[in-house]
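Input record (one chain):
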Amino acid sequence: MCAVVIGSDKQRFDLRDGKIRATYGHSFPVDLGLEPVQPPPQLYYGTARDLAQSILRIGLKPRDRQYVHLSSSVNEAIAVGKRRDPAPAIIVVDAVARDRFIHR
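The corresponding structure, as predicted from the sequence alone:
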């Protein structure tokens, strides 16, 4: 059990009180006890090419999760996008103007 937590290179899991939990990607509210930080000016979202136009038209939405997960580097966004498309589209998000893009 501990090997899963320790071996996760992306720190996807946390071990607390003998239980493993996901650190992100929750479909229900979870307080991870993290301090807010100032984001970099640009963040990146990797996606399949056939979804990019729709995202640009209607915006990024978390669907059945709590948040949209953005990458801090283009390379990380490419790796994420390649899960669905061998040549993904990368959407650049202006993190300074992020309030414009939040859908409630």
